[in-house]
Specification:
This protein is an alpha/beta fold and 281 residues long. It has ten helices and twelve strands. The protein has a single domain, classed as Divalent-metal-dependent TIM barrel enzymes (TIM Barrel).
C-alpha cells in the first residue's frame, strides 16, 4: 500500500491562501509524500476543463508528483429529470478530465440522503435505484475512457459497506468499484472495521480519516460524530488497514483530513499516525 494526500485535506488553506496546484504539491512533498489526489470542485476555480487538464499535466511534470486519484463530488438523488441529466453530463465532463490527466481512479458519491431514519422502505428503494441508474450510465462512459470509478460511502447513498456492495453489484461493471472511506461508516452506525471488511472485495481506493463518537440518545446506535486528527478518534485505523491488507489491497491510502484543528497541525500529525500504522501492519 502507498500513501497519498487528498487535496481536500488542505481545503481551507487552498481557499484562504489562494494556492496553486504547484503550491499544493510542494506542501505534500514537504511532508514526505509523493502522491496527491486532486479535487474537481476545488480545481474548478482554475478555469475551463481544458485549462485544468493542462494545469494538472504541467504541475505533475514540473513537480514529479504522482496522481493517486481525481475526486468528484456528485449527487444523483435529484428528482427533477432535467437537473438529474445535467448532473450526469457534468460528471462525464469531469471523468474526461480525470482520464486525460491519467488518474488511476476517480472517486464519486451516490448522493445525499436526508432523514435517512425517517423514510419508508419504498421511498428509500426508489432513491437508491435513481443512484444505481446514474452509476450504470457512468460506468459505461468509464469503460470507454479506461477509468475506474470508485463509489464512496458518503452522504448516505451509500453509507454502510452493505450498501456500497449492493450498488456496485446492481450495476455489475468492473469499471465501478469502491472508495473505502474508513471513517464514514461511523456516520450510519457501522463500526469502521465492519464496513471495511464488507466493502473490501471491491476496494479500488482508500480514504483515511478519523472521527470521535459523541453520545447522542436521539440516534438509534447512540452516537453522532465529530472529525478529528487521525489517531485521536474512534476509528480503528490499524484494524481497517489490516483488513485491507488481508484482502490483498495494494493501492493508495489517501489521507483525507477533515478535523477542525489547523491544517498546518492536523495534516502532519494525521500523516505521521497513518505512516506508523502502515509500517507496522
Amino acid at each position: 500500500m502507498k500513501l497519498s494526500v487528498c487535496h481536500y485535506s488542505f481545503h481551507r488553506r487552498w481557499e484562504e491562501e489562494k494556492w496553486t496546484l504547484e503550491r499544493l504539491c510542494e506542501e505534500v512533498k514537504s511532508l514526505g509524500v509523493n502522491s496527491v489526489d486532486f479535487h474537481a470542485r476545488l480545481v474548478s476555480r482554475l478555469g475551463t476543463p481544458d485549462d485544468i487538464v493542462q494545469e494538472i499535466k504541467t504541475t505533475i511534470s514540473k513537480t514529479g508528483i504522482d496522481l493517486s486519484g481525481f475526486s468528484l463530488s456528485t449527487n444523483f438523488n435529484i428528482e427533477n429529470s432535467e437537473e438529474y441529466q445535467d448532473m450526469i453530463k457534468d460528471t462525464i465532463v469531469w471523468m474526461q478530465v480525470a482520464a486525460e490527466v491519467g488518474a488511476p481512479v476517480s472517486r464519486v458519491f451516490g448522493g445525499s440522503l436526508r432523514n435517512r431514519l425517517n423514510i419508508d422502505e419504498k421511498t428509500k428503494r426508489d432513491i437508491f435505484q435513481r443512484v444505481i441508474d446514474a452509476l450504470g450510465i457512468l460506468s459505461k462512459e468509464a469503460e470507454k475512457l479506461g477509468l475506474i470509478l470508485a463509489l464512496e460511502n458518503h452522504g448516505g447513498l451509500p453509507c454502510t459497506g452493505e450498501e456500497q456492495v449492493e450498488m456496485i453489484e446492481e450495476v455489475g461493471s468492473k469499471y465501478l468499484m469502491a472508495t473505502v472511506d474508513i471513517g464514514n461508516y461511523l456516520q450510519c452506525g457501522q463500526e469502521a472495521v465492519d464496513g471495511v471488511r464488507i466493502a473490501s472485495k471491491y476496494c479500488a481506493y482508500v480514504h483515511a480519516k478519523d472521527f470521535k463518537k459523541k453520545p447522542d440518545s436521539s440516534i438509534p446506535w447512540g452516537w453522532n460524530v465529530s472529525p478529528c486528527i487521525v489517531g485521536e478518534g474512534d476509528v480503528d485505523v490499524a484494524g481497517c488497514l489490516s483488513v485491507l491488507k488481508e484482502a490483498a489491497y495494494d493501492g493508495y491510502i489517501a489521507l483525507e483530513y477533515e478535523g477542525l484543528e489547523d491544517e498546518k497541525i492536523g495534516v502532519p500529525k494525521s500523516l505521521e499516525y497513518v505512516k506508523s500504522v502502515m509500517d507496522r501492519i
